[in-house]
Amino acid sequence: MTDVNLHLPAKETTFIVGRSGSGKSTIASLILGAHYPLAGDILIDGHSVKTLDPRWIGDNISIIQAHSPLFNESVFRNISFGRRDYENVTNEDVLDVCRNMALERTIADLPHGLDTIVGAGGRQLSGGQVQRVSSKDL
Fold it and tell me: Which of 13, 18, 39, 80 is a Cys-bridge partner for 89, taking CB atoms 3.0 to 4.6 Å apart?
């Protein structure tokens, strides 16, 4: 990948799509500061990812991968795992995420709502539902 320039607006959902091997995961890794570019820089609000606290990046940027892991736990627990202090996540926190990720109808249709066990890898949910539940946007 060379000469890439992206502007991703704050508080907006942006999709990066492309064929296999086109660099989507590389872009995500660069944005999260997991890797650094050989030339140039990755800026977030004008600050290099090299200078930002990794916790701040994790708390403020959400990446949803095509293959999102879910644990054989409740929907509530899988969503709350997206936050570092997951032990302190409230029902209202999770419901806010559900509203933001268009999961309200899905949750309402589940037999036990947020307490529904999703099964290993989320086998009780559709692919899109798995991606939204495993989002790190809490």
Answer: 80
Q: Is residue 138 part of a domain?
A: no
- Cβ–Cβ under 8 Å, residues 63 and 72: no
44: β partners: 47
Tens-place pLDDT, residues 9-23: 888 888 887 776 778
Could you list the residue range(s) of the whole structural domain that residue 113 is in? 75-133
Q: Cα-flanking dihedrals φ and ψ of residue 71, to 5°?
A: -95, 155
Instruction: For residues 5 and 51, state if they share a domain.
Output: yes
Write the CB contacts of 39 (distance below 8 Å, at least 6 apart in sequence): none
Alpha-carbon distance of 125 to 129, in angstroms, equals 6
In the predicted structure, residue 47 carries a pLDDT above the cut 80: yes
Closest to 109 (Cα-Cα) out of 93, 96, 126, 94: 126
| Per-residue confidence band for 76, with pLDDT thresholds at 50, 70 and 90 | very high
Number of domains forming the structure of the chain: 2
Question: 52 and 3 share a domain?
Answer: yes
Side-chain-facing half-sphere of 73: CA atoms under 13 Å? 12
Helix or strand run (H / E) with residue 72: none
